[in-house]
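Bug #2210: token dump truncated for Peptide deformylase?
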Amino acid sequence: MALLDIITLPDAKLRLVSEPVERIDDELLRFMDDMLETMYEAPGIGLAAIQVGVPRRVVTIDVSGREEGSKPAPLFLINPEILTSSDERSVYEEGCLSIPDYYAEVERPASVRIRYLDRDGKLQEIEADDILATCVQHEIDHLDGKLFIDYLSRLKRDMVIKKFVKAAKSGVRPEFKSHTPDEM
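Reproduced locally. Full output below:
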């Protein structure tokens, strides 16, 4: 397995809409393993293929590490889609491996039902709630060219983008309030 480079704001690739996966082969399985290793190393709880510069509808997620002593429980989602969303809402403080060190509260549906292909190419449907629901929605947004900062006010979003553009030009990482919730 190999660590992949995670692209960050203001990279325009983050706004690409990812293409569906046509077939699951050894190359895709290796790529997903590399994505998972990259996600764990970052560390994060979710990673979309576009975050490593590959515009394909592939996501790795593992929210199990939130509890001490828990064993890894990775999910591999190929061509995921949200079938239904609850009317009930929840708010989580989100972070993103492609927007390092920036966190903000985002309101999303509290639960979602998703359909996806697993590593074996089998069609799966699951009901996700709590942090898994938030993470799934966050990662599927990536596949559609959307970032969690798009849920913020225009003023806040523009401020974040401006800081990352300036940082990219100067080569210095932008600074924000320091706290470290899970990064997706």
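Output looks complete on our side. The longest strand covers residues 75-85. Marking as cannot-reproduce; reopen if the truncation happens again.
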